[in-house]
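Dear Dr. L.,

I hope this message finds you well. Following up on our conversation about the binding site, I have prepared a predicted three-dimensional model of the protein together with acetyl coenzyme *A. For your records, I am including the exact sequence and ligand specification that went into the calculation, followed by the structure tokens. Please feel free to forward this to your student if that is useful.
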Amino acid sequence: MSAYIPGLEGVVAARTRLSHVDGQNGVLIIGGMPLETLALSATFEEGCFLLWQDRLPNAAELAALKARMVAARELPGATMDLLRGAAAVKAPVIDALRMAVASLSLDDPDPESETLEAQQRRAERIVARCPIIVATYDRLLKGRPLVAQRPDLGHAGNFLYMLTGEEPDPAARRALATYFLTVIDHGMNASTFTARVITSTRSDLYSAVTGAIGALKGPAHGGAPGPALDMVFEIGTPENAEANIRARLGRGERLMGFGHRVYKVRDPRADVLQEAARRMNEAAGDARLKDLYQLATGVEATALRLLEEIKPGRNLKTNVEFFTALVLHAAGLETDLFTPCFAIGRSGGWSAHCLEQMADNRLIRPSSEYVGPMDRPWVPIEDRA
Ligand code: ACO
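The resulting structure of the complex is given below.
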């Protein structure tokens, strides 16, 4: 029997062509190309096609995919009822997304089919609908009238439009598409592993993506960008950074947006998102956003210095979440939408991993090491303390 490895660190649990994470050198390859190439050039739909089909689409294929994803935007009536019920008790957005994705099987045109084509269409419909769910729910939560989708807008642009009801700013659209692509896939992270485990039981895609959202929402995975931005706001001015961060580390707190299980150098996604945040803040011409960008880069530098001083040798560097917060904030999104936006982007990767797992499946069923007693005596209930 092999040795127990806490957190399965270093254990290879799958073979994939979807992404490669080189944590020592800070390199991320997605669908065969460097992250920077994909995230700054592609539309989100192109990135999904690349992962689902293992090649870039031609113009006709991309147009057909976009048309199918637009056609899938209307949510089942039962999903709408569920979202209204969740809004009535003010459930967090990420919980509403998890529940709503589970309900999307209700209008699957061919729920029993397990053909590759049916699974691919299912993947397209789930991915197409995640932003619709989030935008619809956000408006329900705020008691605002719902906004009909705009078929002429792509995945990122339509999401912004349905959230705000206003023509989306081109710089914000591009920044959001870059963000979705930046997080579309990332090796065998916890939520992707969850999706593959569920798929390996020959369960369905809806269950796999629902489970993945549950895994994503924890602060050790996708729940960090909101708190990262809160920290920057709390610090407020560059002069406060040192005292504030020192106090946090002194209390044993973890700095959100720093550290990573795999990256021991700066997360390459942080570079792409920092550049996206910088471009957007410049394009916006909004002095508050420029100040926030300056403040955040100052906070980052102080945090890195103090992490090295207080946690020497742990190689705690900036992760994707720190600049996620800046990009999404500059795009006008509130912090409760940050983790749901992560899920919107990652749904492309989750679904692709499910398709990959289905194509060459073996039930994922690791072992455990029993550390309990072997001879516990049975005590009748009336005799128990
Ligand atoms: N701030 C302060 N100290 C930290 C941080 C941090 N952000 N991250 C790790 N450490 C310290 C730990 O306290 C520990 O110190 P010790 O050796 O004195 O006990 C040491 O570094 C090693 O920590 P581990 O928990 O073993 O590291 P692990 O690989 O399990 O954790 C994780 C990775 C969960 C991401 C961690 O760095 C963390 O909690 N970061 C903050 C939350 C965050 O940013 N999450 C988003 C991750 S990115 C993503 O999933 C998309």
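In brief: The longest strand covers residues 19-22.

With kind regards,
A. P.
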